[in-house]
Amino acid sequence: MALALTRRQQEIYDYLKEHLWEFPHPPTLDELCTALGLSSKGSLHKQIQALIEAGLVAPMNNRRRGIRLAEEDAELPDENALPMMGYIAAGRPIEAIDHQETVQVPDFLRTSKSCYVLQVRGGSMIEEGIMDGDHIVIEQRDSARNGEIVVALVDGSEATLKRIEQKQGAVILHPANSTMEAMTYSPDQVQIQGILVGQMRRYH
Amino acid sequence: MALALTRRQQEIYDYLKEHLWEFPHPPTLDELCTALGLSSKGSLHKQIQALIEAGLVAPMNNRRRGIRLAEEDAELPDENALPMMGYIAAGRPIEAIDHQETVQVPDFLRTSKSCYVLQVRGGSMIEEGIMDGDHIVIEQRDSARNGEIVVALVDGSEATLKRIEQKQGAVILHPANSTMEAMTYSPDQVQIQGILVGQMRRYH
DNA sequence: TACAATAGAACAGTGATAGAACTTAAGGAT
DNA sequence: ATCCTTAAGTTCTATCACTGTTCTATTGTA
Q1: pLDDT along chain B (204 residues), means of 10
Q2: Same domain, A106 and A138
Q3: For position B25, which CATH number holds?
Q4: What is the average pLDDT across A169-191?
Q5: Which of A128, A133, B82, B151 has the fewest CB atoms below 10 angstroms from its CB?
Q6: CA A170: distance to chain centroid?
Q7: Which residue range is the domain that position A47 belongs to?
Q8: What is the CA radius of gyration of chain A?
Q9: C-alpha to C-alpha distance for A64 and A84, rounded to whole angstroms
Q10: Cβ of B59: how many Cβ atoms within 10 Å?
Q11: Boundaries of each Peptidase S24/S26A/S26B/S26C domain copy (chains A, B) (predicted)?
Q12: Beta bridge partners of A68
């Protein structure tokens, strides 16, 4: 696999990364040759083939104008990182962050399902041991079992992190902070966005 | 194997460690010669060969521009894992586990110093948001600043996780659970084993 | 004296290129 | 539909400059 590139291969790859988008169609080997100052497409083909074997260029099996860069999903700068979606504070919508960010999450703090990370604002869950500033790991889901702690959207605008209790025709959200009271809603007022599966806090 | 390096070999190895990354491509022997002030690539080759036999440089079998430092990244399994040392419960010694175990810890929950992981038993820190079963990350240290949460060994036998306050001739350990009281000790009764830098909890 | 370090020449293998021949794919023309 | 033409991708060999390798001789040093 990850063979070391020769100097020329690196040059050609750099050129492709920088100029490939400029071609209206993916270029032919001949066009690339003139662009690179070569006069033999056979030579260029050999170099391209090396890049394909290195996984940097998508293989083009006899297809015309088939030179494309390989999708670089192979980049794994952080193996187990989850997206940091924003901040959650009781009574307000989730405050999304614009710039994409990720947070490292150990395997045992997440599930095999799709998960994401929020940061807690305020102390509405302080008696559950979830404090201002904590990072919480949420499994994306639209339903919950009684007793689970859920990220719920109430009336389409207020996000909360609370323990859920679902009865016939009613949904009760229990805060863990004794200075706040449980609230009862009708099921169509409450939209579950995920359930709490992990929590992290730093002290330094 | 570990042959003793001559002075010149050590010099060359040090130079490679420091400057090899500066070359856009691995350098040729001639380039290295001018960089090192030599005029014969044959001489340099002999030195490099010695470094290869010492296992410090990756062998380059006739390959061009093949000079690379030997990779010694044998730590693939669990890049960021810390040792799980055992269980801590207020009032008892730390209960070590016999079989070696590790826990994944994200970078931002640890420090650059030596760290390890304990699991909490009991609720002595419940008002600090540290609950029964939580994993805590400890930085190994034998002193602390006031206000930090420390793993302390009292009278050589009782381990606790408490907020520390150090005065003239006295050490006060504050539990965060209001049903328990702060205790005052003399400094030689209290041995600091580390300070709390991170905490993790799973809900599933 | 023995060993390390260097210079320099001669040798050998690699990497890059050109060029030609071959194969495949696409699109008309019959 | 079948065949043909053409453009483009593929394979092959030969060549050449560059670079790693080997060897010997020389110098300096403990």
Answers
A1: 72 86 84 88 89 85 80 57 87 75 92 92 82 94 92 87 90 81 90 94 92
A2: yes
A3: 1.10.10.10
A4: 86
A5: A133
A6: 34
A7: 7-74
A8: 26
A9: 42
A10: 13
A11: 83-197
A12: A58
Q: Which two tokens stand for residue B80?
A: 């960021």
Q: Which residue is nearest to nucleotide C12 (CA to C1')?
A: B62
Give residue numbers, 35 to 54 of B, with CB < 7 Å from strand C. Answer: 38-43, 46-47
- Retrieve residue B90's tokens: 């207020």
Q: Which nucleotide is nearest, taking the CA of residue A37 and each C1'? A: C17
Neighbouring CB atoms inside 10 A of A41's CB total: 16
Q: Answer yes or no: is B111 within a domain.
A: yes
Instruction: Please judge whether B199 and A198 are an interchain contact, meaning their C-beta atoms are less than 8 angstroms apart.
Output: no
| Residue that the structure tokens 């959200």 belong to | A173
**Residue A123, both tokens:** 């102390």
Could you give the 3-state DSSP secondary structure of residue B79?
A: coil
Query: Are B92 and B109 in contact, with CB atoms under 8 Å apart?
Result: no
The Cβ of residue A157 has, within 10 Å, a number of other Cβ atoms equal to 9
Among candidate residues A58, A74, A90, the one where a domain is terminated: A74
Chain A residues within 8 A of B179 when measuring between CB atoms: none
